[in-house]
Amino acid sequence: MEKELTGKVALVTGGTKGIGKAIADRLSQAGATVIVTARNHPGDENLKHHFIAADITISSETDKMVWEINEKYGAIDILVNNMGGSSSPSGGFGVLTDKHWENDMQLNLHSAVRIDRAILPQMVEKNSGVIIHVSSITGALPVYESLGAYAVAKAALNNYSKSLAKEFTPKGIRIAAVSPGMVKTDTMDAYLQSLADTTASSIEEVTRNLMNSLGGIPMGRMALPDEIAELVGFLVSPRASYITGVNYIIDGGANPSL
User: Fold this and answer.
1) Which domain of life is it from (predicted)?
2) Residue 140 contacts residue 249 (beta carbons within 8 Å)
């Protein structure tokens, strides 16, 4: 199991920090050759994986990145679409402009569509491949006060992922989504700090309020990035060979529905 991805080439978008970095490290431990991409180099001299700077909200940069990977490593076997996020302000629907909606859709939906379009033909040609879309529990449980546009984009990503699986699974490609709840990352810490600053509350208060808005977290804590990475590591492995077209919620039990 430790080297079950030996010989595989994996691309992790947004793979330099947080969940993306944990996923990249997990796939590397399993033997994969891992390439990570982000808009800017994180400045980490100990970065373990091949890094390509690319803004995958731009088609030309996406195509150039895929070409570079193919030239150096060959076809991509595993794609983890982890890039996403939101810079929209809190305050509900009334504070969101067209630009906020467009940015959140670009980051969380269109970027995944764009890179899938660049990579799927080569997967179809060899009749194999795995694509994982990292979504969010907010796709099913929107937090409208602060993540309205982001939640809508993730709900769309979930629908898109299912649609893609229906079309491409018969061609040998497995496609699935993973929807984390609250995860302890630097980005989450910064987000909670911004909420605290906006509402003149403490970090503890805004953390508790956000947990409550998701219906509470029975585990009583946020997930660790490595816990999300472990699920992704399984889903891209041969052990998950019959799994496709699903959305795995990993949220410590927060989602109250079946």
Assistant:
1) Bacteria
2) yes
Own/partner contacts of 215-219, CB < 8 Å, gap of 24 or more, are 215/141, 215/254, 215/255, 215/256, 216/254, 217/181, 217/182, 217/251, 217/252, 217/253, 217/254, 218/252, 218/253, 218/254, 219/252, 219/253
Q: Are 148 and 252 in contact (CB under 8 A)?
A: no
For the chain, how big is the Rg over CA atoms in Å?
18
Q: Distance between CA 126 and CA 131 in Å, rounded?
A: 14
pLDDT tens profile 37-78: 988 777 766 678 899 999 988 999 999 999 999 999 989 999
Catalytic residue among 73, 144, 150, 160: 150
- Please answer whether residues 24 and 36 qualify as being in contact, where contact means their C-beta atoms are separated by less than 8 angstroms: yes
C-alpha torsion angle, residues 245, 161, 230, 248 (rounded to 10): -60
Q: How many CB atoms lie within 10 A of CB 256?
A: 10
As a whole number of angstroms, the distance between CA 140 and CA 104 comes to 16
Contact 39, 55 (CB under 8 A): yes
Q: Show Cβ contacts of residue 55 under 8 Å, excluding neighbours closer than 6 positions.
A: 39, 61
pLDDT tens digits along 80-103: 999 988 877 777 888 888 998 899
Which phi and psi angles does 197 have, rounded to 5°? -65, -40
Q: How far apart are CA 157 and CA 81, in angstroms?
A: 11
Domains delineated in the chain: 9-183+226-250 (3.40.50.720)
Residue 242 annotated to the active site: no
